[in-house]
Amino acid sequence: MNRTAVISTVVLLLCGGAMLAAWLLPPGESSPGAQDSPPRPPQPVAHRPAAPAPPRPATAAAAAAVPQAPDRPQDLWRDHPTASPFEAVRWHAEAPQVLVGGRWYDLVSLDGIPAAQILSFCRALDERDWRKRFEQDLYEVLCRMEHEPGQRVKLVVREPGAAAGATRTLENVPMTAENRRAIWWARRK
User: Fold this and answer.
1) Helix (H), strand (E), coil (C) string for 51-80
2) pLDDT per residue as tens digits for the range 26-36
3) What pTM value is reported for the model?
4) 161 CB contacts (<8 Å, ≥6 apart)?
5) In angstroms, rounded to a whole number, what is the distance separating the alpha carbons of residues 101 and 173?
6) Residue ranges per structural domain of the chain
7) Which of 50-54, 65-69, 112-116, 154-158 has the lowest mean pLDDT?
8) What are the phi and psi torsion angles at 174 (to 5°)?
9) 3-state SS class at 176
């Protein structure tokens, strides 16, 4: 047995690859500790063609207009501050109920954007986890809607079960990291 075969056999045995080591040995030889079964030939490896490269923009202006995706999918929702005006969120069918100032409300709008429009945008961004996007990534969702919220927002809300016209406006509701963190923790319980 030549030096390369010995080294390959030792490395494979140390890594738990006794069957692979048997394939590398010449016929009639066995590795230390191997059973008296004949070595199996290696199976052919299926080769897949490489994926085509994405098309490149023709001009520098076109290249600047193409949004760059993060390198890792888990970074997709980490580009903006994590803040929320809600202390908690619960769901009544497809509509969110939000806790603000210790009271539960149906959300009608946020900074003049109807809640239905925000929810529709969340669904378009992430069909599977759209509720999570509303609860935990509201700041980024609003930025993607081209409405960057300030440190305080205006909410139009309605008491749960109240008539459609019985709304209340909550001015200067703070967008805080503490609120968002509380929502994040509540989702893990």
Assistant:
1) CCCCCCCCCHHHHHHCCCCCCCHHHCCCCC
2) 555 554 544 55
3) 0.59
4) none
5) 9
6) 1-35, 78-188
7) 65-69
8) -70, 140
9) strand
Eight-class DSSP state of 133: H
Q: Give pLDDT, residue 187.
A: 81
Q: Distances from the Cα of 172 to the Cαs of 14, 31, 100, 101, in angstroms?
A: 65, 76, 12, 12
Q: How is residue 122 written in tokens?
A: 């969340």
Q: Which amino acid is at 78?
A: R
92 contact partners, CB below 8 Å, separation of at least 6: 106, 160
Q: Which CATH number fits domain 78-188: 2.30.42, 3.40.50, 1.10.4100, 3.30.200?
A: 2.30.42
E strands within the chain?
A: 88-92, 95-100, 103-110, 113-114, 152-158, 167-174
